[in-house]
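Show me a record, fold above all:
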Amino acid sequence: MRWGIISTGHIAAKFADALHASESEQVVAAASRDAGRAADFASNYGIARSYGSYEALLADPEVEAVYIGLPNSMHAEWSIKTAQAGKHILCEKPLAVSRAEAITMYDAARANNVWLVEAFMYRFNPRTLKLGELLAQRAIGDVRIIRASFGFFLSDMSNVRLNAELVGGALMDVGCYCVNVARLAAGQAPSRALAAAQWAGSGVDETLAGTLEYPGGALAQISCTLSGSSHQQVQ
């Protein structure tokens, strides 16, 4: 599969390195709204072509799939445009900022016969796959309580994760992992959600704790923070 990358950020760089290490995938193009940044990124990561607009990358006939590593508020727009260009989509988490957005993205992918995948890499970890098998076999019985927590200390106050206009915040950045793994363990979507948050001056949730209730009776306790110690835990 020949990939294009829409982003020049830190995670996009890791993704480019991973593609180079793959025997089946290759990265052939990168795009930024700043042509200079796109060119520098392509040069640094051994990518043949760079574009100064996202539209130009989508028009590249050699690109078969696109990794979208843009801020949360831009995921839906560019996933839909990528689908309309007939290219498969790996969109950074969280996939969307609302249920309505997610449905529209799904509909666009289905209408254009392309894959739309949310970039939760942990889902493909051998341990996660084994956990899924054990849960499906009910090897530990009925799931009653799920606890998941993810956090780190964000010292850069200008970081996009703290930008309300771009739909940042702890829940969207790392709490989405907690919600996702809880759904994996429960095997279904929650029927009720309760949460409380501490708010950053920019208007995003800096720390959040919540409870998810599932139709079968299971409960999940989740917490996430951008202003605490670095940790990733699930029980």
Remarks:
- The chain has two domains: 2-121, 137-234.
- Helices lie at 10-21, 35-44, 54-58, 75-84, 99-111, 126-136, 170-186.
- Residues 88 and 139 are 36 Å apart (CA to CA).
- The chain has a mean pLDDT of 97.
